[in-house]
Amino acid sequence: MSSPDRNDTPVLITEAAPSFEQQHAARRKKYAIMMSLRFPCLVLAALFSHTWWLALFFIALSVPLPWMAVLIANDRPPRKAEKASRYEVERRAIERKSTTVIDG
Questions:
Q1: CB of 72 within 8 A of CB of 27?
Q2: Do 61 and 38 form a contact (C-beta atoms < 8 A)?
Q3: Which one of 34, 56, 61, 90 has the fewest beta carbons within 10 angstroms of its own beta carbon?
Q4: Is the pLDDT of residue 9 over 80?
Q5: Which of 14, 30, 24, 29 lies closest to 76, judged by CA?
Q6: 57-98: per-residue pLDDT in tens?
Q7: How far is CA 10 from CA 13, 15, 20, 64, 83, in A?
Q8: pTM of the model
Q9: Residue 28: which of 74, 78, 68 has the closest Cα?
Q10: CA distance 98 to 104
Q11: Within a 10 A sphere around the Cβ of 26, how many other Cβ atoms?
């Protein structure tokens, strides 16, 4: 039985990374968005062909888009930096004993 106060959504109890499928879907989406921006850039370059510097700007903008899209699509999230658990030996110094010096 669930009470009206109870929230049935699961609680995230670990810091697990997203699954491979989720990461892949997000990368595919980014790739599709970036590649879909290339065609409008080329169309805008054709529309602004009477203004050469603006057409050149749109062409120059569309040239690195496929390269950037592939780099972003192939990139994966960075690994978490995990601190290694190492045994550290406690170093103790030898105690100095007072020595009695007898002259004579």
A1: yes
A2: no
A3: 90
A4: no
A5: 24
A6: 999 999 999 999 998 888 877 667 777 777 777 877 777 777
A7: 9, 14, 20, 43, 29
A8: 0.56
A9: 74
A10: 19
A11: 13
Q: What span, in angstroms and rounded, lies between the C-alpha atoms of 59 and 56?
A: 5
Q: Give the chain as a DSSP string.
A: ---TT---SPP--S-PPPPHHHHHHHHHHHHHHHHHHHHHHHHHHHHTTTSHHHHHHHHHHHSSHHHHHHHHHH--PPPP--------PPP-PPPPPP------
Quick one: tokens of 36? 């879909």
Chain-centre distance of CA 16, in angstroms? 14
24 and 55 Cβ atoms separated by less than 8 Å: no
Residue 13 phi, psi dihedral angles, 5° rounding: -110, -5
Q: Which amino acid is at 26?
A: A
